Structures
1.
Amino acid sequence: MISIRNVSRTYGHGPGAVTALDRLSLEIEPGEFVCVVGASGCGKSTLLSLIAGLDTPTGGEITAGRNPALMFQEPALFPWLTVEKNVGLPLKLRKVPRAEREAKVAELLATVNLLEFARKRPHELSGGMRQRVALARTLALDSPVLLMDEPFGALDAMTRDLLHDELERIVQQRGLTVLFVTHNVREAARLGDRIVLLSSRPGRLKWQGRVDIPRPRRIDSPEVSSLAAEITDRLRDEVASHAR
Amino acid sequence: MLARAWAGTWPKVLAVAIVLLVWQIAIWTEFRPPWALASPADTFADLGRSLGDERFWLAVGITMQRAVLGFVLAAGVGLLLGLAVARVKVLRAALGSMITALQTMPSIAWFPLAVLLFGLTENAIMFVVILGATPSVANGVIAGVDYVPPLLLRAGRNIGAKGISLYRHVIAPASLPAIVAGLKQGWAFSWRSLMAGELLVGVANRPSVGTRLTVFRDLNDSAGLIATMIVILVIGLLVDVAFGSADQAIRRRWGITE
């Protein structure tokens, strides 16, 4: 579904150049939920921008199908539009007829449990609700691939927990392929079918492994906790080797 | 409700009262003869008479017609110019600083040239009014486009907006507050340019607020003169209030307001 082969991205030229990603290769199967974990500066966000086509690699090749949908840490909603118009904009840009659009927006808002907030503006909603609107808008792209850049990083633990459940349900219902970037190891263990660890500066594939914990999972279950601890140790080695 | 309205109003009422008092004290001290400085009572009586005089309304009408036409044209030119400069790199390098330079040029300094170019005509006045307001509007557009949050641009591109649709659905609405600020400033510049123009360029058979000022000075009619100045002030304030409420409406919609 997503194929990343030997991809590099360097910013700038000469001695001041910074390599954000260095010959990274990664294959993601259709319907797979992959979590990418790494310390700051490991090129996680760069990777998503490259896959989404908002940036071009300096080396290597990426195939990711038609228009992968991207979700950010901030909701990035348009403050001048109501909730329903924010969600409807991707459809409008695809020239979906009005009646069909309205039905689709209602369905998406129902999916994220926000139907009664359709006429509100983003600033009238809580952080978690805004992020759910952003998710609905991303889903409106009807893309089989969902790229998520620390989407719940700015939320409190309770809200995040609820959104994990919601995201898991939506992804399973729609059979989406997800690449989920996070620095929260527990979150990765809670959500991922596979976890990929990136090293930092330059970003390289450090380690990857399957998550065999059966779903539904809980973030506070012993299995998730012990997997999180294991990954944290690997991550710590990585960070320490850089501090030296 | 009434108490709150009063809480907002009384400082303004007090300020006006103090101005009137200082003015009246100047009259009492006979600081200047009445033909040079009319009393508040005489001035407001004159203003009251003017309001019932059709020549007054003709003059205000012509001035407002010029103001609106000049402002609309300047807004149109400014929007297009601003968009072009914001979008095209070469134009920005060529014109970016020139627009700001043009803005610092006092518009009254353009009038002698305008008179040589167009004579004592409407066109001379329009030329300077448009020159006065266009740079502000253009700068507002440029600032608006430059400061669109990059995250919104990324989000917009990802959901399928590109080229014109990116402008229509993301860049234009995101720059709206800066554009309104530019329009507001542009209005202030065009209103000032217009008053300067009407004082300097008296077009035959076209009575205006500016020509009334000239006539009252020539007649040593300070009551009429100050009354006309009050009219200029009030018109400026009313338009400012209109822009202020447009700005407020945007802020409320966006949730920027407290």
Note: Chain B touches chain A through 20 residues (CB under 8 Å).
2.
Amino acid sequence: MTNYDSVDIFTDVGVATRPDPFIEHLRSKGPATWLRPDVVAVTDYATGLAIFRDEEHYSTVNCTFGPMELPFKVEGDDITDLIEAHRDQIPYGNLILNQDPPHHAKSKGVLMGIITPKRLKENEEFLVTLADRQIDEFFKDGKFEVITQYSQPFATLAIADLLGVPEEDRPTFKTLTGSLPGEIGGVAPEDVSSNPLAQIGIFFFKYIEDRRANPQKDVLTDLALQKYPDGTLPSTVDIVTAATFLFGAGQDTSVRLIAAMLRYLAEDQELQQRLRADYSLIPKFTEEVLRLEGTAKATFRLVKKKVKIGDIEVKPGTSVMLMIRAMNRDGKRFENPADLDIARRNSQEHVAFGRGIHACAGAPLARAEARVTLERLFDRTKNIRINEAKHGPANAREYNYWKNYLLRGITELHLEFDPA
Amino acid sequence: MVKITYIEANGDKQIVDATPGQSLMQAATRAAVPGILADCGGAAACGTCRIYVDDANYRAKMPPRSEMEDAMIEFHDDSEPHVRLACQIQVVEEFDGMVLRMPESQHS
């Protein structure tokens, strides 16, 4: 039996793979509680939501990994200027996600220039073709492993299409995936050199330079020539950064969401039949899976200015662990929180995509990927089931999850089906 | 204070004290109105703070929709005639007493 008072969430594999008992232990201590002298954990929905929306007291500079040794001495009640002065020395400090206002708005502007409503609509049409192509590859087998045979290639190619990557380069993009932040025993935050996104960046650098010299009628040209709201042209690097960021952020997240959805449906045949009979229930179901099994279990904030969280006085330089999974399972906000209930009235209030200025820009893409996947699989199959040879019988299933304190993801999901 | 009523699709009402200069989205999220999600924090980039302004008198006091707001509303296929993004409208004294409705789902 794990002693939850002494366990280290950042290294404990048991807590990483089976997070809920630990979450409930933390919740029993109040809306916010100390994890260690430099980290406060927030489990309460309302408390966390207010922090998501408070850019005045909190920075996201540490959100990729969490607590770290700061490259400066914390002094005074406000370290906003110190963070900015040392940002370049903080690993990933300049990623869009880790930037703070006012710089963040400019970077997010470039990102939103890529994920426009118009592009999303066009991309959605392509997703249907893409889903069918992936299904074709295993259809005759009557079984498949969801992540490697479907959702990984699907999610990668979905973003490649959104960004207008030429067909001939797309196979290379499929192979460029790497280590995840938050992995226990994974790549240390300091080691940026092994980042596979750098490879994707090289491709985009070439595309943007080329389209600026030789504009064509394509998405990459739109990307290359888009302007900041003030009418100035972003540097090539700014656009490359936004494009590669999208690849990093939009792959594993959607991949594991699709797997989580399919696991619920394969385990619950009655629910699967209800959705098959009425596709309009798919979005509600998606929100419930996002709430219960969203890929981001937690994210971080760094306290910039002295602040109170619940009853706790928190000093600048402290890390706040916003426990998204805990917030989404807060019984004060969601009745019978652990139940997947597609009739739940307020499922959409979950914070699986965060909230506030850093909320996930790719959320509409993820939702479209989820919906198209289920619609195409439902159209082409009769019943989707768990492959018991791989996961064991119904009363003794075995699923493995990432050993990761930030991200939740099933490592493999083997399914079977009959053709429709 | 400017009193604004937000009504959820199921009829639940919440009356909010808004401050001139805030957006209609900020007024709602500060008061934790459940139907206004405002995923993107007010950048007209997510379309999850949609409201329906049924009263023409109040509509006349609002600025027209920008191209960006149009695009985001179109993306959501929201067919209600008087739909707006709450984040794009600043509260003014003349909004006092206004009633706004919200969609059943902001993610449709």
Note: The longest strand of chain A covers residues 381-386.
